[in-house]
Write a structure and sequence with these properties.
This is DMT family transporter. By secondary structure, this protein is an all-alpha fold. Helices cover 76% and strands 0% of the residues. It contains 13 helices and no strands.
Length: 298
């Protein structure tokens, strides 16, 4: 694998990990609809400033179905589930659930693209699901996770949306530019979350620090991280790109500890180990693939 996709994928995962911390902060100031609307508005504004870079769109008949599915999955359903998940679980636990994405991508690729799913992947998925359930039940409610089981379940739903999105994006990227598709997501998200944003009263005063976090979420996470990841998906296999999501729980737990003071109990650390063990089992190559790799010097 070339160095540049490795760098872009790692940086995208670091930005996505930081979004859990940032969202935890701004959700104490604004409602989830207001946060998501402003985040998408900032990203859309950035795209309007560089609209000349988007290139021409060569639409093909019937693509509206795939484009609509992509926009519905991310940002619409994904962000609805993730932001509400963070109302009930901690940033660190949500980051751990993100590690399920590679296995979910494999399952979605099996359903949509008829790619084979091994028994080892299914076993790994089962182990990881057990770990996430244990993570949510490992401790009673606290200030960071008032209902961890519900929050982690919502985050799992978000990961299912992300997995399906990755496969759909890979399909569309053969006909549309990465920047065009990423910009489309921002504009769709702005329109979708506008009704949520204005259904509740806005705060009377806004601190510049809070606005800076919104700008970071919109410009660096919504635009930057997605652009980095989406470009990487065009350079490597979608399942390989998804495997880098395993970095998110590591980055998130570290940032949550350093910036929010979040900690996990020994039982929850054991649950984290079960999640990572399930991911490792699910991504180990089969005996035949290992033999082929040795034979070819891979």
């Amino acid at each position: 694998m070339r160095p540049l996709p490795i760098l872009t994928l790692t940086l995208a995962m670091l930005l996505w990990s930081s979004s859990f911390i940032a969202l935890k902060h701004v959700l104490e100031v604004w409602s989830f609809g207001q946060v998501l609307f402003m985040r998408m508005l900032v990203a859309s504004g950035c795209w309007l400033l560089c609209y000349r870079q988007l290139g021409r769109v060569q639409y093909q008949k019937g693509d509206w179905r795939w484009l609509a599915l992509m926009g519905a999955l991310e940002p619409c359903l994904y962000f609805l589930l993730e932001v509400n998940a963070l109302r009930y679980t901690s940033a660190g636990q949500a980051g751990m659930v993100c590690a399920l994405l590679p296995l979910m991508v494999a399952l979605v690729a099996f359903v949509l693209l008829k790619e084979r799913v091994s028994r080892r992947q299914l076993l790994g998925f089962a182990i990881a699901i057990f770990g996430i359930a244990l993570l949510g039940l490992g401790e009673g409610a606290d200030e960071f996770a008032p209902n961890a089981l519900l929050g982690n379940s919502l985050e799992m739903g978000a990961m299912l949306c992300a997995a399906t999105y990755s496969v759909v994006f890979k399909k569309l990227s053969s006909r549309y530019g990465v920047m065009t598709l990423t910009a489309l997501q921002a504009f769709v998200g702005t329109l979708f979350f506008a009704p949520f944003a204005f259904s509740a009263p806005w705060p009377a005063s806004w601190a510049w620090q809070d606005m800076a976090v919104i700008v970071f979420l919109g410009a660096f996470v919504t635009l930057g991280a997605y652009l980095l990841y989406n470009w990487s998906v065009t350079q490597v296999k979608v399942t390989l790109a998804a495997a880098y999501v395993n970095l998110i729980p590591v980055f998130t737990l570290l940032l949550a500890y350093l910036l929010l003071g979040e900690t996990l109990t020994p039982l929850q650390w054991l649950a984290c180990a079960a999640v990572l063990a399930g991911i490792a089992v699910g991504q180990l190559p089969s005996g035949r693939k290992r033999a082929e790799a040795v034979a070819t010097g891979g």
